[in-house]
Design a protein that fits this description.
The protein is an alpha+beta fold. The protein is about 25% helix and about 30% strand. It folds into two domains: about 5-155, no CATH class; about 165-295, no CATH class.
Length: about 300
Amino acid sequence: MNPLVLPLSIGKDDTFRVSWKNRFFTARGALVLPRKITTELDAQEILESTQLVVKLAEFKDALRSKLLAALAPQNEGKTAAAEIFGVVLQVNIKTGKVVAVDDLRRTQSEGGSESADFMAADAEVITLSDAARDELISSFNRALTAPVLEALRQTFVPFSEDISDAWKQQDLRSIQPDKLVPFQMLFPNGQPIERFVDGERYVIDDLYCTNPTCNCTDVTCVVLKMLPASGTEVAWGGFKWNIEADKFRPLPQFSNKFNASEWFKQFNAASAIDLKLLLSSRQKFMRTRYIAERKALR
């Protein structure tokens, strides 16, 4: 997997709806970063302008094919070719606005499939007039509803704290101050910290001390092994990273031999954001904005 491609995590099926030219499309999107984020300046530049690649599939065709199959059983299993569009947009994540269309291509799928190769020889590159380009931009800006914007923004909250306040809607008072708080609990639509080993997926669940009387700079990282067959996960290993000392130490509750620094190195190689930068930024957010918000609720 390309670590610079960040699929949008929106909801159950990770899709959103786009209305364009009186047609309705199911959209799947991914941010495509030009480079790995290694500094806060990199993050700010990405927030102000980056590519959002979207695949548009007209979903009324699937409904129509089912209706035809029901009316004419002899046609069951036969579906008309559907147009699939691939769009490359420039988006400002801070403002939540699409600002430009870089590329638009059209191809066709057979049998109701939504798979498409926009680099194939038969894919049509569409040239838009200024008016048509503005119309397409407007269509996408209407489609960037709150859930889509959260999917765009939650990964970058530690670098621009005010771009999302959805986390404040949770019952923060129910969380005990002496408990470690998982970042993903507050920002479930952010990009996971993951790597693949021999086809198996591992994810870091990073937890933070939010006790206002504690001055530690530890990040607790529990490595979860994902079990897709059962839809579950198991805690496979873990470590603490001390930001101030830049030291790793294994969590004692795991009996397997776990090379914390090597696993951190491999997770970092598979991350679009330098992992030390990301975790230290998250720790700063949790120690400042999160604790301040809890105090304000008292």
